[in-house]
Design goal:
- The structure is a single chain.
- The protein has 527 residues and is an alpha+beta fold.
- The protein folds into four domains: 119 residues, no CATH class; 129 residues, 2-Layer Sandwich (Nucleotidyltransferase, domain 5); 97 residues; 77 residues, no CATH class.
- Helices cover 42% and strands 16% of the residues.
- Strands 3, 6, 7, 8, 9 and 10 form a six-stranded mixed beta sheet that branches. A three-stranded antiparallel beta sheet has the order 11-12-13, with no helix packed on it.
- Helix 2 packs parallel to helix 5 and helix 18 crosses helix 19.
Length: 527
């Protein structure tokens, strides 16, 4: 970063600090008082020196002060404008920031610039990891860690728009980025479409279809003219416009554009935040935005790591990458601290996820989803001997007729067929199958691993262990109280910054409860 050099807090401190001059006004036992007294144990100006110019420029507000202000803003869920006001007038905030009583405050725009600096240098992740370093230094982590993973929906900050608005929005983005590339007639034809929502009868299907045709035609003309542009901004906007047209539009029998029925895979839902996606937490609970993965330590209840992914990403897909990152982080902080068991719910119970976690040197403990077969015998009622290549049905019939196939994920599998001769006269047929050709059973690559997990979940120790998963749910609830129900900023990376700030606040408060700052007993009890 150029134009601003690193500003530093005077290491000798000041007798005019609010935490000293007006200590009686600072809420006792509060987050602000703890941040005032112990913030310097986690955040120092030198750790953020790489965010600023080395030689030339005006001095910045010390980054440690900025960081504390951002944490206060996260704790109180304030806008930049309100954050600016509180840095000027709020005694709790001034004490937490470590500034003098006559501090004039921080401009709202400065917070946006600070966040940009932090993301560019991955300083938000380093800020969060400072809480883990403090936990290591205080001896909080003992023995192999038993971690818990879960995910939570984060509603996006962008507006979810119709196909018409998406095409018009991205058409405008391309037109602005390619202002010097588009021909005069094309620019003139596109301009009226960008002036605002079309003045048509939106209740009339024919009028809507005609307007869609105009938008799509204009989009295709623009895409043709900007094809091959070397400008990254133009190329990015053009790619999004082409993606939206492809995902939301097909053709009727006459070759005219019409809205596609159904939802395209990985559909873009907002032109103000193109990274947002449709997602589901359950069959009945849909959301638009992102998915936040959270891993916490079961014993200390500290957050070990967070990640933000697309809302339509599977829960299990994010487990191994985040666990691997946490393992590497802890290895750099304290090689003796190892990751052991990982507790999860059924969304993480897929065989591929189990293999990926095991390859990291950890064991995944999660219930296997129950199998059903429309009221008939499920596959779990059959005895599968993969070593001998045979499957035995509940009636005692044995099949060795294995045919190569693939499962729902395209992984290799074997389909064992019992055949009509085995099933036609079977007294258990009504409870087993209605297929004229007889019952079939698919055996996948993870069959033995899943059978072992299914048997293990009946162990009383495993049952008791899985009850501990509620701790990560409680931690997610804490992060949601700190603002993680809804993204404050547009884009996945900015939403991750928000999640890391929330996790930093949550860990700071938890560290105080754990006595990592040698907090007085009465303060720890008030946490």
């Amino acid at each position: 970063m150029t134009g601003i050099v690193l500003g530093r807090v005077d290491p000798q401190g000041s007798l005019l600090e609010t935490r000293l001059m007006r200590r009686h006004l600072v809420t006792r036992g509060s987050f602000y008082e703890r941040l005032a007294d112990h913030g310097d144990e986690l955040f120092s100006d030198g750790e953020f020196a790489h965010l600023y110019s080395e030689r030339m420029g005006r001095p910045s507000i010390p980054p440690s002060v900025m960081i504390r202000a951002l944490l206060c803003a996260t704790h109180d869920r304030t806008s930049d404008a309100e954050t600016s006001r509180r840095t000027r007038v709020d005694a709790d905030w001034k004490a937490a920031m470590g500034v003098d009583d006559d501090f004039e405050g921080i401009a709202a725009r400065t917070f946006s610039l600070m966040r940009a600096r932090m993301m560019a240098a991955d300083a938000d992740n380093a800020l969060f990891e400072a809480t883990l370093a403090k936990a290591v230094a205080a001896g909080v982590f003992k023995g192999p860690l038993r971690s818990i993973i879960d995910s939570s929906p984060v509603n996006g900050a962008g507006a979810v728009q119709s196909s018409y608005e998406l095409i018009r929005g991205f058409l405008g983005r391309v037109a602005r980025a390619a202002a010097g590339i588009l021909s005069g007639p094309t620019a003139a034809a596109v301009a009226p479409l960008l002036a605002g929502k079309a003045a048509i009868d939106w209740q009339d299907p024919a009028a809507r279809k005609e307007h869609l045709g105009v938008l799509v035609a204009a989009g295709r003309v623009v895409l043709a003219e900007v094809a091959g542009s070397g400008d990254p901004a133009v190329a990015e906007a053009a790619e999004l416009l082409a993606q939206v047209i492809d995902q939301d539009v097909d053709e009727d029998g006459d070759g005219n554009p019409q809205i596609r029925q159904g939802v395209a895979r990985d559909r873009v839902v907002s032109h103000s935040d193109p990274e947002m996606r449709h997602g589901r937490k359950s069959a009945s609970r849909r959301f638009d935005g992102y998915k936040m993965d959270v891993i916490s330590d079961e014993a200390s209840e500290l957050v070990l790591g967070v990640e933000v992914r697309a809302a339509n990403a599977g829960d299990g897909e994010g487990a191994a990458p985040l666990l691997g990152h946490i393992r590497d982080t802890l290895a750099g902080l304290a090689p003796a601290v190892e990751m052991g068991l990982v507790l999860a719910d059924m969304a993480y119970s897929d065989g591929d996820v189990r293999v990926a976690v095991e390859e990291l040197g950890m064991d995944l403990v999660a219930k296997v989803p129950p199998m059903s077969n429309g009221g008939r015998y499920p596959k779990t009622d059959f005895y599968i001997d993969a070593d001998r290549g045979e499957v035995t049905c509940p009636a005692g019939e044995v099949s060795t007729d294995a045919r190569p196939t693939t499962d729902h994920k395209g992984r290799p599998a074997w389909l064992f067929a019992f055949g009509a001769e085995s099933c036609v006269g079977c007294p258990l047929r009504p409870e087993c199958t209605s297929a004229a050709a007889g019952r079939t059973v698919m055996v996948g690559v993870h069959e033995a691993r899943m059978a072992d997990a299914r048997a293990a979940q009946l162990d009383p120790k495993i049952i008791a262990m899985l009850r501990l998963r509620c701790k990560v749910e409680r931690k997610i609830d804490h992060l949601q109280d700190l603002g993680m129900r809804k993204a404050r900023y547009r884009g996945r990376r900015k939403t991750k910054l928000q999640a890391l700030l929330a996790a930093t606040v949550a860990n700071f408060k938890r560290l105080a409860v754990l006595g990592a700052f040698d907090t007085a007993p009465q303060l720890a009890a008030a946490a």
